[in-house]
Amino acid sequence: MDILSSAALWFFPFVLPLCVYTCYTDMREMRITNGTVVALFLVFVVIGPLALPFEDYLWRYAYFGAVLVAGMALNAAGAMGAGDAKFAAAAAPFIHIGDLRFLMVLFAATLLAAFASHRLAKYTPLRKIAPDWESWDAPAKKFPMGLALGGTLAIYLGLGILYGR
Q: What positions does the domain Prepilin type IV endopeptidase peptidase occupy (predicted)?
């Protein structure tokens, strides 16, 4: 992996609770809160200069802008929720551009695992643990993507600690 393991170590303890909260709220309410997205972005703003070389830190804002524009276009086309687009944009600066191909594979695997786990829980007695979650009764084409997005970012940074340069 191209991410600096020291950078992943700086980011991980601040990002992990936000990723877990994103998974939780998206399953419970079928929405990713603006406060969580803002907090995630602020973690990068504050911790980024400590974790990354300054030039790299500044370039990561371009990642934010590119993913935000792409997310807005996907949202306008009805292919992605607004909260998902905002979360992806806020998460983009944490990703090293050299890890993009790896991240896409990781996201695909996490998405499949999240979908299978969610559907398994939805149609088994596990649903009784949280019977009022909106994601259980959402239309079949709707899925709490925050479960996969938050999971992907947390796993990426965790792997970055272990296998980063």
A: 15-115
